[in-house]
Amino acid sequence: MLKPFHGFALISLGIAAACASIPVTGDPAVTVTAVAETEPVGTANEDAADDPAIWRNPADPAKSLIVGTDKKAGLHVYDLAGRELSFMPAPGLNNVDLVELPDGRVLALSSDRSDLETAHVSVARLDPDTAALTPIARIEVGPGEGYGICMGEVDGDGSFTVFSAPKNGIVYRTTLQFEGEELIDKTETLTSVPSQPEGCIADPRTGTLYIGEEAAGIWAIDMQTGDKRLVAAVDNRLLVADVEGLAIAPEGRDGGYLVASSQGDNAYAVFRLPGMEPVGRFRIGAGAFGSTEETDGIELDPRAFGPAFPGGLFVAQDGMNGASAQNFKLVRWDAVLEALEAAPPAP
User: Fold this and answer.
1) Local structure of residue 311 (DSSP, 8 states)
2) pLDDT tens digits for 282-298?
3) Which uninterrupted H or E stretch holds 309?
């Protein structure tokens, strides 16, 4: 069993905000290393790479795909060795998530921040055979600069839900459905958080949407009612602001893990679901490939992905990729769990 992460004391959000400008190192983190990395994104010398998403090939998981954003240029598609397979130009795309519909179509949905006043969702179709992306639609969501995005439920009739979290703190729920080749959309305001959010992950098993409010922590939000509660505050121990990407490794009816990018000290915080009990922290250190720093988006799938990733795949954006443009690092999820299992309890 993984040991609970003891000594987790919440501090007031006011103190956390006051300390945001002071470099902070949270509680000790175990170190893992990447076993692969993607080719750098095309935009050099800028904060460009942001968020990854994973499509798992059910017939041959080793031939799965990773979609990653270059928010200055568009969407890249990589294989599990990190080789770029295709690129779709589309400046302004920030976060990305994937959905597979009952009819077999695979869609990439991205937050589109090219209009700073109004959030949009960009929809593209991913061809799993060729790894090519084809634009389908650009959907207006509502006021705010597009930022976070994540997929919700897919219904048997082919309708599906996407959640948007613009910089203004409003959280939108958009329902989409194809009528022929036309994509019909309906957007509602679900709730809001006090300050800028970004990280977003939905757990349809429990009807819970998790939103990372960068300066404050992680909110658990009812996907239907919008009722919310802060379930993990920035405390400069487990979470060091900014809270960035969120990812989930579901197990069973409501178990598994939620991972958050603790960007302020280049670490990742792990919580046990459904209760969000703290488990521990890890870093991606230098090994055959470089370490990760200032991570924005992350993605996680605990299923097997062939011999390179037999116990799951964790993907993290690397905000400081040496002399190269930013990229994404690929880590064995089972190696993370093993490192956390072996770690001594926190004092």
Assistant:
1) T
2) 999 999 999 999 999 99
3) none
